[in-house]
Design a protein that fits this description.
Layout lengths: L1 H12 L3 E5 L5 H10 L3 E5 L3 H8 L10 H9 L3 E4 L10 E4 L14 H13 L5 E4 L7 H11 L10 E4 L18 E5 L2 H12 L5 E3 L3 H31 L4 H8 L23 H11 L5 H29 L7 E5 L14 H11 L3 E5 L25 H5 L3 E4 L8 H7 L3 E3 L14 E3 L1
Parallel strand pairs: 1-2, 1-4, 2-3, 4-5, 5-6, 7-8, 9-10, 9-11, 11-12, 12-13
Antiparallel strand pairs: 6-7
Helix pairs in contact: 1-7, 5-6, 8-10, 8-11, 11-12
Length: 443
């Protein structure tokens, strides 16, 4: 308990050095938030290119201005590095590494395990270790804790272990890291209280829960809620379309109800680092304990089927307009980011759409104002290196169809309506555009 009190004093006085492992869409904003509150922060990443860019005043996350990062680096409040020996010098170690799925849609904790092994090799008595990545209930105790204790140090006695799920929404200007309440569960009450004290210094509110298992379940519940409701509106879109009813108009009217309803929107498929992945962490773990998750799995099936349905709609529109199937056509995919106004392509449905279109014989290009080039991904490495085409009236007219996958705000939809031969809109982006005709089809 004395060590716990010592850490609490360090955190409250902000004399502690905070180490954050993983400088991606979660770790980098978190690093800057701690630095903004007066902490000295060491940011760790195995990607030396990321570290080099940060040190050179460059950015690789569009919504985080490089000026702010450079300011903290110049003030020696933020130190990006790939030297993990410096873990010995910090009071708190926060792990923000990827937790993707395997090809069989099972949890892939390899990044967590390898990171934990590195942490264990440098772990010091009295340190706090916090895990922030999405995972299934029980994994912090069953996977992370044993690896850390292989150091010879014991959780709750020699160091403190906690779980506090990230709640980042990249590109959302209304909710930045400091303004989002933080769920905190610990391996014991002391660990939880120590972790709460740390986060109390940088966020609007901490929400302590009884265990790390509960905190892990909170994260999954939040994103499964979104997945299930998106699946619902995706299914309603298909049903209502057959009845001649516009799902987008229905949603706009329904959301005027001040209670008992929350708007969710259909799309061409799920994207991002949470919603397409988190439900499968729970379904997998449920099977291990002998339970079924039929509702969640059905939602996953509906959302996974959406890219195929969008391509079917495009083909039907081509047949109606010009009597041609997709084979032999030129298609422009508008947007490859997983959501609008960000440069993030993680789990983007755009990649699935490209492959489905090409499998049917189309030639596919893309335009995205935030993605000049597709970078390598684990599942779609073959698409890496493809570059965004120019945006012009002449270029648009050259395609047989334009498929809107991502509805970025800084796209000239009026020009699109005027010059494209056919627009298939999966995001309702063309609503309100003056040029509306039978060349615009909702998908």
């Amino acid at each position: 308990m004395a060590e716990g009190n010592s850490l609490i004093d360090q955190f409250e006085s902000r004399d502690a050095v905070v180490g954050i492992i993983g400088l991606g869409y979660v770790g980098l904003p978190l690093s800057l938030t701690f630095a903004a509150q007066g902490f000295d922060v060491i940011g760790f990443d195995i990607d030396e290119d990321k570290v080099r860019k940060l040190l050179n005043g460059e950015t690789y996350i569009r919504h985080l201005p490089p000026e702010k990062t450079s300011e903290f680096i110049a003030a020696e409040k933020f130190s990006p590095t790939s030297d993990f020996n410096l873990l010995r010098e910090v009071s708190a170690i926060i792990i923000c590494v990827p937790t993707p799925l395997t090809k069989n849609r099972e949890p892939d904790l390899s990044y967590v395990e390898s990171t934990a092994q590195v942490v264990a090799s440098h772990l010091q008595p009295g340190q706090l270790v916090v895990f922030e990545s999405t995972t299934y209930p029980g994994s912090s105790i069953k996977v992370l804790k044993p690896i850390l204790e292989s150091s010879g140090l014991v959780s709750g006695k020699d160091f403190y272990l906690a779980y506090s799920p990230e709640r980042e929404d990249p590109g959302n200007k209304d909710f930045v890291t400091a303004g989002i309440p933080k769920i905190v569960g610990g391996d014991g009450e002391v660990a939880r209280d120590v972790a709460c004290t740390l986060y109390d210094q940088i966020v609007v509110q901490t929400v302590p829960v009884s265990s790390m298992d509960v905190a892990e379940a909170v994260k999954l519940t939040e994103n499964i809620f979104r997945s299930v409701n998106i699946a619902l509106v995706n299914e309603l879109k298909t049903v209502f379309a057959k009845m001649g009813v516009d799902i987008w108009e229905v949603i706009e009217a329904a959301k005027t109800k001040p209670f008992g309803y929350m708007p969710f929107y259909p799309g061409p498929g799920l994207g991002g680092h949470c919603i397409p992945i988190d439900p499968f962490y729970l379904t997998w773990w449920a099977r291990q304990v002998g339970e079924e998750t039929r509702f969640i799995e059905l939602a996953g099936e509906i959302n996974t089927a959406m890219p195929e349905k969008v391509v079917d709609t495009l083909e039907a529109a081509l047949l109606e307009k010009s009597g041609q199937k997709i084979s032999g056509t030129k298609v422009l995919l508008l947007g490859v980011a997983y959501k609008k106004n960000v440069d993030d392509t993680r789990e983007s449905p755009a990649f699935v759409l490209i492959k489905l279109l090409e499998a049917r014989g189309a030639t596919v290009d893309f335009y995205d104002p935030y993605i000049p080039e597709i970078l390598p991904t684990r599942e779609h490495a073959d698409l890496s290196g493809r570059r965004s085409v120019d945006w012009s009236a002449e270029a648009l007219a050259d395609f047989d169809a334009v498929l809107i996958c991502t509805d970025h705000d800084n796209v000239d939809y009026q020009m699109l309506a005027q010059h494209a031969q056919l627009v298939v809109d999966s995001r309702n982006a063309m609503t309100g555009v003056a040029e509306t005709s039978d060349r615009i089809v909702k998908a």
